[in-house]
Amino acid sequence: MIELVLPDLSIAPTILTLICLLLFYTWYRRPSRFPPGPRGFPIVGVLPFLEKYSERTMHKWSKKYGPVMSVRMGNEDWVVMGNYEAVYQSFVKAGSAFSGRPYMKLANEITECKGLVMRDFNPTWKTQRKFGHLTFRGFGVGKKSLEDRIYEEVEVMNKEILSKGGKPFDISEILTNAVMNVICNITADQRFEYDDKNFRLLQHILTKWFLEPENTAAFANMIFVPLLCNIPPYRSKYLEVKRDMMQMADVFQELVDQHRISFDKNNIRDFIDAFICEVDNGKDDSFTDRQLVQYLREIFEAGTQTTTGTLNWAILCLIHYPQAQKKLRNEILDVIGNNNRPSISDRKSMPFTSAFIQEVFRFRTRVRTGVPHKTTETVNFANYVIPKGTTIVANLWAVHNDPDVWDEPSKFKPERHLDDKGNFVQSKHVIPFSVGPRHCLGEQLARMKIFIFLVSMVQKFEFLPDPNEPDLPEIDDGVIGNGFFPYPFNFVANEIHASYLTVHIVGYRRLCLIHYPDAQKKIREEIFAAIGNNNRPSISDRKAMPFTSAFIQEVFRFRTRVPLGVQHMTTETVNFANYVIPKGTTILANMWAVHNDPDVWDEPSKFKPERHLDDKGNFVQSNHVIPFSVGPRHCLGEQLARMEIFIFLVSMVQKFEFLPDPNEPDLPEINDGVKGNGFFPYPFNFVASEI
Description:
This protein is of the alpha+beta class. The protein has 22 helices and 18 strands.
């Protein structure tokens, strides 16, 4: 018996080797004409090599394997589209073949295979997608326009920001509350008070699984690697996230039940009413309460994540790039002023704002590899054969950082989206909402929310770093999970005031008009020639009124309102002009000296508006007139102040002639004034005769 066994044992290593080779060959081989790519290790595939930023690792691989490549994810072969052309050709040109949705255990269990996001590409998906598209697009939803619903919450949000009193705070919760209430207004025609228990529950769950680093990473890992759902410590997270999502579903079911009680088919108020109407019509059995509940959950999740994530990144960019913030605010004040409500229709007149938002979309891609697609049939694509049922991923980060498209893609440059004339250029290479039949349903609403929220905040507040933190908040790293969000950060939001500055500068203008009647006459003649006696002045008239602009600039120079500026301080020891200035040294800028430098100004003690005109009578903007200071800490309200001063002055001179008080033998003093936190004329009376 032993002799019979030994020969078998002697060939065991050979048999074992053959089995291993066969398993390795089975593992390593690809379908015929399948795209090339890395294989990784058996069972786990390339997962150990993906690192934190998987999209960047895939981008490196694509340089070797090409823009259409495969990766072995666990025991499945996925295909990655690595540039715009590959994404466009697959998701748009061959959209029907690439619009399926792979089965993903946790996501499908949460949705109960209902809703819209995780449904496969089939007639039911098309019906539900069409309903959502028409309902969002059609009537706003209900009697209020989308803008009305957004702006209602914007006003509440701005009050919340104002309540911080200029102290450092984290805006994430305020933004989440505001965005969620916009969505609630659209879907359920109501807004929650921020202390409502159901609202707090929704806010808590969304923050927990989409913003908290540990939980959002675990959530994403379980979706993409289903095996983890059964392995500690992920098992407890798996049960926890399912329980939380069921609690969300219960809140939405309660909303649906409330709507059924008050439903009137002749008064469709919102998304829920529109859906109930379809349920009651009974023409399509995919319209059910459970479908509606999952639809609502997806709208809340996706709508909240997209807008809050983008706005958080936008605010962080404003803090990191103060010159962009200044330029953005100047454009806002030029186009809509300080108090007018922003409208999406203003966007066409605000090219830099549009460029800034598009650059945020590009610079910080929120869903870096999109939501996975699946081929619905075997496809011949880019000289490869991709079998039916293959998972497809679009590397949106790679599209947004393609060096063949973008100059210095790692840098934040809103100007890249402007042409030579300063017009905004919509780029087909910026696709944060994906493209094709399965692009984000709420894209239009999201773009509207982001524009109105951002413009409203920048219009009212200046965003500054937290003075208690020595370093700016991190912008090159963030929370990775089902999206890409900045790490929590504090900042200061200072309310913008400009009226105080304007009133006192206009006071000196009136005094100069009285002292120099020839200048007053010349301004009035120019006003009548440019806009007449009855037309309302506009800031756009300024370019046709060179003497008026010269007069205003000369008042800025002649009577410097803040002679020594506001004190600065060195933030580090500096070698400057062959001197060493220690950290913490107080710095003063003698603005009066700049405005009265005899090496720059001929007879600086005299009031001569003509000094700011060239030989042809054109106005010359001088970089030596700096009443609002210069640099990162120049006056935040400069643009608004300039606008107010121009319009106030022109409006008054257009309607009135300013004359000395006949009861006072001497003209009011112009070479002296009240000194304190500024320089103001002494109180004086004058006569204003209507023209």
